[in-house]
Amino acid sequence: MRVGRVALFVLFAFASIIVPVVVILVYALLTFQPPFIVTAPVTAETIELLPLDQDSRNPARVEQERDILDVVQSISVQFPDGGRVVLMEFPALADMPERFSAITAGIPTDSKALVLGRYLTYHRRDNGLYGVLFYDAPWILISEAKTKQAIDEQFRQIAVLEEQPKSGFIALTQGNLGMLFGVIGIYCALLVLLWLRMASWAAGIDRASGIQPLPVESLRARLLAINETDAPFMLQPGKQQNELIAEWKYADAKWVGIMAAGGLKSVARIKLRLDGKSCKVRSQDTLCRLRWTGAAGSGSTASARLSASWFRGIAFAQYDTGFIGGLILTNDAQPTVSAAYHWKFNIQEMKQPLVAIITQAGWDWKPVITFSRLLNG
Q: Which keywords does this Swiss-Prot/TrEMBL entry list (predicted)?
């Protein structure tokens, strides 16, 4: 594994999610238009639907709103079924987001949703009305009704308001949700495919330069030579002819006591598939829980067996050419165990010599999340 490759993979994964979200949000913000706008001077005479509710008739109430929010005028229209429309005008240079937030905070709600910081839908907990609150400087408009469907209908009955045609992101998505979800699904599928391939590339180790690749049987023999050493892990044939599985000797009487004394709770398995055509070894890491029976801390009386696996894919362990573990290679590429080494039974101690044997045999080490050629190449 190369640190630079991993950094590029992480950067790509982050950007592939964040960049589209930012682009969509910016586009939605720039193309947002309020559903209704004020198109005529707002006076009691121009509002055809009467009567005005008590708040608008009470000069003290209007004066109080002016003191708190710098309201130029506040007109409220009461509907027979209990709904209402409120139009509040502010100075042209007023801080509309701040005024919008102040009004929003004063509404007792049990649920609400804010869109782009300027369009709020909510449900009041005091009277059960549904509401919409948005601003189009210098106006803030509110409509509250018993049903969601009646909210826009109330706006349409106010003579000084004009309904805006849907545009921008809202127009793009409205009525086209099937297409939208289809595009998102295709993008996510392509993204997963790219992530899988980039993860494999980022964690891969290229073959040693200047070395002619060994035949597949010679490489297999070198890997199986680990079984002739006193290493605490072994390789055994898998279900397929070109498959080997490396795993710790958790059932070996010599090593089980050391593992138990160290409180080992999970162990790694590495599945290898040797591809003689491309001279690549595809590897898949699996981390399994280790279940102890007997006196787990007493050494020789303990026994262990594998329980369910909780990870399958690529464990991004750093490959370090200067790492000296318990299993090292001699000058003629033969594995040998260091008697003085204290084993920690982590995946790097197993993976490091495997990578060294494979790359020094002129083969590439290619970690994969799945062995599907379509997904991981």
A: Membrane, Transmembrane, Transmembrane helix
Strand partners, 247: 234, 269
138 within a domain of the structure (yes/no): yes
Residue 114 has which token pair? 């804010």
| Pairing between β-strand 233-237 and β-strand 243-248 as defined by DSSP bridges | antiparallel
**Count of domains in the chain?**
2
Cβ–Cβ < 8 Å for 53, 84: yes
Query: Any idea which residue has 């498959």 for tokens?
Result: 243
Q: Is residue 5 part of a domain?
A: no
State which residues form the domain around 62.
34-163
Tens digits of residue pLDDT in 210-261? 889 999 999 999 999 999 999 999 999 999 999 999 999 888 888 887 887 7
Q: Specify whether 224 is located in the same domain as 277.
A: yes
Whether the per-residue pLDDT at 88 is higher than 70: the answer is: yes
Q: Are residues 218 and 306 in the same domain?
A: yes
Q: Give 186: exposed, middle or buried? Use CB within 10 Å, 0-12, 13-18, 19+.
A: exposed
The whole-number pLDDT of residue 171 equals 64
**189 within some domain:** no
Q: Over 90: is that where the pLDDT of 40 sits?
A: no
| Strands (DSSP E) found in the chain | 36-38, 73-78, 84-89, 109-115, 119-124, 130-136, 139-145, 161-163, 233-237, 243-248, 266-275, 280-293, 303-313, 327-329, 335-337, 364-367
